[in-house]
Every structure is written in structure tokens, then in C-alpha cells.
Amino acid sequence: MLKDIIDDKFYSILKEGSQRILANNFVRILTHYDGDGGSAAIILTQALRRKNIRFHLGFIRNLDSVKFRERVEEYPDVFTIIADAGSDQAGAIEEHSNVVILDHHFFRDNNFKGLNINARNYGVDGTRDACGATMAFLMAVAIDESNADLLPFMISGAIADKQDIGGFSGLNRTIIEHYGRQGRTEHTLNMEGETIQESLTYSTDPFFFDLSGKSENVRTELQKLGIEGNKGIFDLTEDEKRILSEYLAWRLLRQNAGPEAIKYVESDIMKFPGWDFTSKEISTIVDGNAKVGMNAIPVIYFLGDESAREEMINNWKIFKTKLIEYTYRALKEIFEDTNVRYFYAPESEMAGAISGIMMLYLMKQDKPLIGFNVGTVDTKVSSRGSRRQVQKGLNLSIVMKRSAEEVGGSGGGHDIAAGAVIPRGKEKQFVEIANRIIGEQLSPGFGERS
User: Fold this and answer.
1) Where are the domains of the chain?
2) Interatomic CA distance for residues 259 and 108, integer angstroms
3) Would you put residue 57 in left (φ > 0), alpha (ψ -120 to 50) or beta?
4) Which of 59, 95, 224, 355 sits between 20 and 30 A of 450, alpha carbons compared?
5) 3-state secondary structure at position 372
6) What is the pLDDT of residues 179-235, one digit of tens each?
7) C-beta of residue 135 within 8 angstroms of C-beta of residue 101
């Protein structure tokens, strides 16, 4: 039971939120547009449908306070659930009492009259131990314990937010141990795809320089290793898994990847009865469709419409192909400052994904990385750091927020990954401010933590 794994205050507010939701016959759902938000959307739509509550689903791209308020007020009288966003924007909709927020990001205090249910308020690390899909799952189980079968989508959201690196921890781990008994876990290569050939060719997480996106190179290397490319990941022998794992770890070491990346070569991949895809595959499919603007397709498929499957998979491959191409391009065009590196991305939806790949797998771990996507009016900013940098004092949520505000924009997020929206043309000024703040955070003795 839910009350057995969380404290009384956390359980109480989740039950209060569930009662508010169940009092409506029509509910609007708004979630962030990425893999975590998309996973949360699948959980919440399933939970409402099972209670015969009609719903309308939308996705949030712009977290600027003004834009956020405009989005909520498209239907001001409709009861609304906001997941994987909203806590830090609640101040912009303070008077809206018919809203329940399910979030895990850092946020500022406000006088919001609705329910702001954020993992951080209950002693949970929202960067590593709970994501938006975690919060959606908890709410779904608070609505009805039978919704525990939606666990694969909680796991997919956590994977999308990189909360599985080094193994699940904290609340995520507790939930999986409590509700995941029906799943089958296998420790194997951390990839997705029907065959090893396909898995390596489309692999972005991990990203293997000169293998990802290079089908012929993959074929050649697999032949050298004596591994048949048409085998599936779960069909490999223990010796083949060991050989391939060691080879891929060696490649990552050669391309500047840090310890976090090496750990990500292998992972506990979970399969669940009734679902065709592993937890890893669900995560990348949901995220890939979101990044090409097709957020609703996986939701439609996982709600039971099999006709969406082919389009969903094709969207995933389109996303992977573009992401790999853009990563190689960005790698050639990195700009250096004293305390930060930065680059320009061709699409706003890709900046965060490119930043994550390059920071984790392709760059030295001495500086955080910032990605810009310059639009017609605004510039989207994505930033990534490493866990070691965070241990030394880095907090990109503060960096993005303060730097953006000084140039007339807004920002926030996690200590290890955060974003912002700033006026076009302010990129260089933004970098100068961010460079200074990061230097202060990482200076000896400043914010050092064990």
C-alpha cells in the first residue's frame, strides 16, 4: 500500500489531491513536453480513464511565468493537473485553486491557492530520487492502488531524467521494490532496439563516437568481436555481453567520458507482463516522439491504439538520426570560456539532449556545458553539469535563474541540469554572467560538500 512507503504528510496531501481530482467529471492535464513529462502523461491519462473521467491532455514547452499563466488560463474554469512542471511557476497562477501540481524541481515560495505537491517538500531529492513520472505514479496509486501496474511508465520517466545512472535510489528505488514484483529485471547492455546492429547504430545514451549513427562502422566492429549483429540484446550469451560491454566501456574511456558514463554501459533493464517494450525502450520512445513534436502518439499507443505503433517507432528513429547528426555537428563548434563551454543548437527541442550527450559522453568533466537555440524572438538555453561538479558546489538551477533574470529572461531546474529562456541577442552577455557565477560556485572552499 502507498501509505507503507511514504511519510504521513506526503501520503495525506496525495490523498487530498486524489479526492479533488475524483470530484470532477472532466480534467485537464498539462505536462512538460519531454520524456519524463510524456511518461507522466501516460500514467495520468490511464488513471483518469479507468475512473471514467474525461480528460484533455496538453504539453508545456515554455516555462516562462507569463506564458505559463496564459497556458493555464486557456481553460481557467477546468480542473487542471500539472505534472513535471509548475512548482516554480505557481506564483504566476496564485489565485487558481482548481489546480494540482505534481513536481520535483527546485522552486521559490509563493502563495498558490491550489495544491503544490513537490517531492522536495517531503525530504525527497528531486534531482536523483524522484521525477515528474514518480509524482504522477504516486498520485495514480493514491487514486486507486490498482494503478500500480503503471509502474513501467514511472521507470521510463526516471530513465529519461537520468535517475537510473548507478542504479535507482531513494524514493524511486523504494517504489520499484514495493510495486515491481511482477517485472523481470535483467542486468545487460543499456540500449534499445530490435537487434544489436540497430541498437548501436541508434545509440545516443550511451553515445559512442564513430559508432552512433555509423552503421557500417558498427557492422565492422561487431564482426571483429565475433558477435552477430542480428541478435537481440537479450539473446546474447554471457560471454558476448561481457566482450561487448568491455569493448564499449573502452570506447567511452577513449572519448573523455567520465565514471558516470562508464556505469551507463550496463543497466538493470526491466520487462513487465503485457508490455512489448522494456523500460529503457519506453523512455526513449516517449522522449523521441516528444522531441519531434509528436508527444501524443506514445500516449495514444499506450492507451491501447495499436495503429499508432508504426508512426511511433518511425518518429523515434527520426529523432535519433537528427540527434546524432546534430551532436557530431555541435562537437565541432564548441566555444570555450574560463568556467563554461557553450554551443548553438539548430532546434530548441534538441539543445538539452545534445548538452546531455556531450557532457556525459564526449566532453572533459572540468566545466559545465550550455546549449543555445536562437529563435526569432527568444533564445532557449539548456545546461548540463556532472555529479562531481555538483559535489563541488555547482547548482545550474541558480546559474540559469540568475543569469537569465539579469538579461531579462527566466530560468531554473535542477542543480545538474537546468534551462532558461532569454531575449534573442543576449547570449554573449548571458555566458559572461553564467561564467562568473559558475566560477564563484566552483571556487575552492565555496559551497564544497562531501
Assistant:
1) 2-182, 184-271, 333-442
2) 33
3) beta
4) 355
5) strand
6) 998 888 878 888 888 899 999 999 998 999 999 999 999 999 999 999 999 998 888
7) no
Q: What is the SS3 assignment for 401-435?
A: HHHHHHCCCEEEECCCEEEEEEECCCHHHHHHHHH
Fold of 2-182: inorganic pyrophosphatase (n-terminal core) (3.90.1640)
How far is residue 268's CA from residue 233's CA, in Å, rounded to a whole number? 13
pLDDT digits (tens, 9 = 90+) for 303-354: 999 999 999 999 999 999 999 999 999 999 999 999 999 999 987 678 888 9
- Region of 412 (left: φ > 0; alpha: ψ -120 to 50; beta: rest) is left
Which CATH number is associated with domain 333-442? 3.10.310.40
Alpha carbons 107 and 411: distance in angstroms, whole number: 11
Interatomic CA distance for residues 284 and 156, integer angstroms:
8
What is the Cα–Cα distance from 398 to 414, expressed in whole angstroms? 9
The per-residue pLDDT for 19 is: 98
Angstrom distance (rounded) from CA 153 to CA 76? 29
Q: Which residues contact 287 (CB under 8 A, 6 or more apart)?
A: 34, 35, 38, 160, 319, 353
Three-class DSSP category at 127:
coil
Q: Given this model, what pLDDT does residue 263 score?
A: 83
Q: Exposure string (b/e) for 191-223, b if CB count within 10 Å is 16 or more?
A: bbbeebbbbbbbbbbbbbbebbbbeeebeebbe
The dihedral through the CA atoms of 214, 269, 251, 209 has a sign that is: positive
CA distance 402 to 15: 36
Rounded Cα distance between 273 and 397, Å, is 38
Runs of H (alpha helix) within 308-413: 309-331, 348-357, 387-391, 396-406
The answer to whether domain 2-182 and domain 184-271 are alike in fold is no
Q: What pLDDT sits at residue 445? A: 54
Helix (H, G, I), strand (E, B) or coil at 45: helix
Look-up of cell digits 509524482: 135
The CA distances from residue 27 to 45, 79, 84, 293, in Å, are 10, 5, 17, 23
Distance CA 426, CA 19 (A): 46
Grid cell digits, residue 82: 500539472
Q: Residues 315, 57: contact at Cβ < 8 Å?
A: no
For the domain 184-271, what is the CATH code?
Answer: 1.10.8
